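Notebook entry, structure prediction.
Reason for the run: the old model in the group folder had no record of what sequence produced it. Starting over properly, with the input documented here first.
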Amino acid sequence: MDEKRKNIINIVWIVGRGLLTAGVIALGFYLLWRYDYIEQFTAIDNFIGLLPVLLVVTGCAAVAIVLWLKHTKKFIAPLVSVAVVAVLSFSLFPNALIGNWWIDYGQQQTTESEPELDIYTPFAADNALATVDFPQTSKLNGDLPQLDGAVALYPVYAAIAQAFYTQGAFEREGGCAQTTYANNGERVIMTNTLRAYDGLIAGERDVIFVAGASANQLKKARDAGVDLVFTPIGKEAFVFIVANDNPIDSLTYRQIKNVYSGKTAMWRTLGWKEGGRIVDFRRPDGSGSQTALQNIMRGTPLTVPQPLPSRDLAGSNSLMTQMTVEYNGVRPALGYSYKYFATKMYPNPETKLLAINGVAPTAENISNGTYPFTVNFYAVTNGAPTGNVKNLIDLILSESGQRLIEKTGYAPRH
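New structure, fully documented this time:
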């Protein structure tokens, strides 16, 4: 091979390696930019949060070494070792994004708190349901739709049943049941978001009242050939909760995303030097509040729950109770729920709701939408509503129905 041809090959090889190196570095920058590690680097305060950055940097450096180290017998062993490091670094990156390193990471997930539900039984004497004046002649008197939904919305749809069903038909067709499991004999069932969706998809419910569907629930409906129809009927605030002696009163949307994406794990990063580690209690996947948290992350991966610093912190395994657990002389818990549930159904008087971007979750701010995490809640049906299901939804959307939702403690949809 003549000298000129050799020089051309060497130039092509150098340019090719340069382009490949630049491409890998560009990929690394893209990954770190895409998941906010460049912009939010100063908010990273823990090793698990830093690990994705380290893996990307290590992977890019390893690829560069493989490309530029001499490819001779002398360097075969180092080349193979560095190539393995590069492959491992990039293959572990998705796992690092969600902090999924623990065998027992689920201990921070909590069961549903158990408020007093008997006070919301439709037509029961001295119940706590909101009421509206509504013509008796306009009530549904037979073939009553079967209702189910989230625990936090039980006061709403129980009040709807009491307002728009006749008592005789309600009692004749099965009445009410508060149970964790399906019971197809009653007209008003209180299970939870997970079971309500399962029942609706299976055709065992007519209308469910929920704040939204998770990606898994939407997929389950698609797989079953079910067209879920969401009719917004009111507004609610998704709120973040801390102990009332926590000096933090407001967090930004960015700080919330940093906490739940694993970048920020210490209260000092948020302004509380003595707070220690943030103990962020979680709800199970598929629950209404967990779906809301996933939605506000807007594509930023949500980390799996990290192990508690002490198993004693699990306590009653009820989120609203756990908000005031003590550890190392402080109450470091952070949690989330819907405002009505946290303040009306299962309140903990030693907690407070955080403002977001300086906006508190007041009734006015929820109604006008200035509170950042204002969400709709829905009457969901299996396909377009017809018959008495449609009649019921029309009643809910009427002036009387919207006034009933407002009197219950939620904001009407408009």
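Summary: The first helix runs from residue 3 to 34.
The old model has been moved to the deprecated folder.
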